[in-house]
# Entry
Amino acid sequence: MNTEMNLRFTESKARDTGLPGTDPEHEPKAGNEPPRASRRRRFLVTGGGGFVGSFLCERLLDAEHDVLCVDNFLTGQIENLKSVIARPGFRLLHHDITHPLHVEVDGIFNLACPASPVHYQSDPIRTTKINVQGALNVLGLAKRLHVPVLQASTSEVYGDPAVHPQAESYWGHVNPTGPRACYDEGKRCAETLFFDYHRQHGVSIKVARIFNTYGPRMSQHDGRVVSNMIVQALTGQDLTVYGDGQQTRSFCYVDDLVRGLMLLMETPGHVTGPINLGNPVEFTVHDLAHKVIKKTGSRCRVRFMPLPQDDPTRRRPDIAQAREILGWQPMVGLDAGLDRTIRYFDRVLKGGEPQRGDVASKASWLAVPLLDTA
# Structure
């Protein structure tokens, strides 16, 4: 039986940690906002200790819902939850979603999965299990409870696309046997399971395909392009650019993404997705490197390295469906988002807050009791 309990720590301890938590820069932006709760609901957020998941937990609480955050802290950071851990209506369960979950909730956001190549390629078999077995477990829970479940899918289902920009109707160009396949094909299989549960069992599903997202609370060790470049620039290292730097990405600030996820969850039952969520403004990786150098005032240079296998050369979402169905589009431009993210990493690097290590040491550092599952 799973053990679940409230986590609390005092206001003084919350202040003493010195963690870079929520600040006015992370208030919801103007635009089409998720509605305030007409009734208080309890949402399960798997992967809630992660970069995106922790912001989603915050916004759900802000919208007057209760949140059950589930994470095994394989890549999530317990310090990401510093701003919510003492709030009424928040609960945390230490659990691996490759095992069944027995809880009572009104809706499910499934965000649990390592999302950076460094993390998901470090144990590819486990990554596939998290994607596939994890999807089966949350879908089984949604079926039993008759509640909606949202799958955080990815633009990686498009692979190295032969169509540009990528619309939801595009089936993708994915290498099923390459080093990225554990994530790419794992997410594609999860989407298949979601739609099969919808067709066969009538489960209410929502599928979001998330494009490159960045912002505070990214791990400085995850190797993703934005966090990697910012940390290198702030620590005086040359910036790593793979290939010739002309491959493109579209960068969505985390607040915009979370707003889109919440809007998708609130859509009528016939809206299943998949729906792209990302910023349609396209930049080359080389452009990003020069923006980071300029904004950090660094004197470092760009160091070119071989392009990893199956790394996509172009990536930009077609967000026509998100605009039409959700009334959603990004509000935070890359310059503003980078400024906020650079300030966050500057505080982290100067303050020396731990950003990795086992969950027990993190919990001890935050003066929070470690939860476990029996």
